[in-house]
Amino acid sequence: MVLDKKSVETLTFEMDFSTRFRDKQSIASVDSVTATNLNYVTSSVPITVASITFDGDIALFQLAAGTVDEEYTIAVTVTTTSSDVVVGEGTLRVV
Fold first, then answer.
1. Is the whole-model pTM more than 0.90?
2. What is the mean pLDDT of the chain?
3. Which of 43, 45, 74, 90 has its CB surrounded by the most CB atoms within 10 Å?
4. Is 46 helix (H, G, I), strand (E, B) or coil?
């Protein structure tokens, strides 16, 4: 998954875990959402993560800030209703 945002935007993004879960599983909690820069830009500004929640199989979170032309790895860790811990990753480009 590749996401785009402008550095001045605060946007809500989602990560759908439905293809990663067994039947009858859903998200019980979102344990963490992290944004790690890939260091394409010297002295890049970190991404701010806020408003973490979920709805069924979908984790929802807000991302703000960032540096133009930088890319960040977004990692979302969830625990399922069956106590499985699942990590989803994607890339955020700041344009």
1. yes
2. 96
3. 74
4. coil
